[in-house]
Amino acid sequence: MKKIEFFRHSIDKDDRKRTDAVLKSIFLTTGKEVETFEKKFSAYTGLNHTIGLTSCTAALHLSLISLGIGHGDEVITTPLSFCATANAIIHAGATPVFVDAEEETGNLNADLIGSAVTGKTKAVIPVHLYGQMCDMIGIRSSAAEYDLRVIEDAAHAIEAERDGIKVGHASDVACFSFYATKNITSGEGGAAATNRKELDDSLRMLRLHGIDRSAADRYTRHYQHWDMPVLGWKYNMDNIHASLLVGQVDRIDDLWQQRDGIWKLYEQELVSVRGIEILKTLDNVRHARHLFTILVPPRKRDAILWNLQDHNIGVAVNYRPIHLLKYYRERFGYKEGDYPVAEDIGERTISLPLYPSLREKDVKYIVKTLKKIL
Ligand SMILES: Cc1ncc(COP(=O)(O)O)c(C=O)c1O
Fold this sequence. Notes:
Layout: H1 13-24, H2 32-45, E1 49-53, H3 56-66, E2 74-77, H4 83-91, E3 95-98, H5 113-116, E4 121-125, H6 136-146, E5 149-153, E6 161-162, E7 165-166, E8 173-177, E9 190-194, H7 197-206, H8 215-219, H9 239-250, H10 252-270, E10 285-286, E11 292-295, H11 301-310, H12 326-332, H13 340-348, E12 349-352, H14 360-373
Parallel strand pairs: 2-3, 2-4, 4-5, 5-8
Antiparallel strand pairs: 1-9, 6-7, 6-10, 8-9, 11-12
Helix pairs in contact: 1-9, 2-9, 3-4, 3-7, 10-14
The site of pyridoxal-5'-phosphate has 14 residues, from α3 and α4.
């Protein structure tokens, strides 16, 4: 039996042609191709400005800095995410403060924000876990009450919508990932998207050292001298990575449709399997269908995981909660029991393969194997 990989990207011949054209050109770093990607991504999200970056981590970091958040500040987020979410807060010099997840969806529980606010709280970073948007109406309303900035970690959720609100439309800025296993990918890559012009200006400058001229400005016309008004980072997306993304943005809804079909097949096949729970997709949601996760009994999770691998099925764990990672325990004194919902999901979750080229017979084999193991 051939291995069913956990993930296969959907980069096609036309994407490769586009990258080949960039490689044959003179200009490899941030230039026209990045501009094309940014325009297309803005058209898709409906947000006025997209800033192409090297990762979602970079987008989160620069968004915090651009919103003036740093030393002495606290930022509320969820422990049930990839460590990048909380790490970016620390990179900005601030302190992450966790609130627990909702049982139903695994998303940050908006009702708990108020209880975590102190005089130092400056922002909240909701993470749209697995592709389902958080309760942005609730988060917006807490943010207004406590005067907090909102940065969406939309690494899983480019295509998401909830209560008629699209991703990025109820916050200051949204951060996206094009990492190797994301819905659209360039291997590594990310973007920030916002409707706020001054944030766009800041993010653009900070992504390239804080310099006020890009390489394209400096070298494609008469040479222009540049200055560095602020201290920035080296987080600019280049033309090579952008060229891989342009076509995928055009196909994004088609790719979503294919994953949605696989998701529904999983749900249909798994609904009656004892010992497996599936987190809820809410009614008023367009789920981005990024990660298909199941919940199994806690003490059996790792055995099931390894057993699936022994049957040639790729799996992942998204996520063991951030507060229990060694660095976070040691630096902040977190311990088991601090965020029980996130811990419960973290002990029971398994992510199954989900990508457009996964076949119906693969899904049936995965489900049959799962039943056998259970
Ligand atoms: C929820 C979440 N946030 C942030 C990130 C970081 O993304 P990147 O690898 O593009 O920095 C990831 C990546 O896996 C993620 O899953």
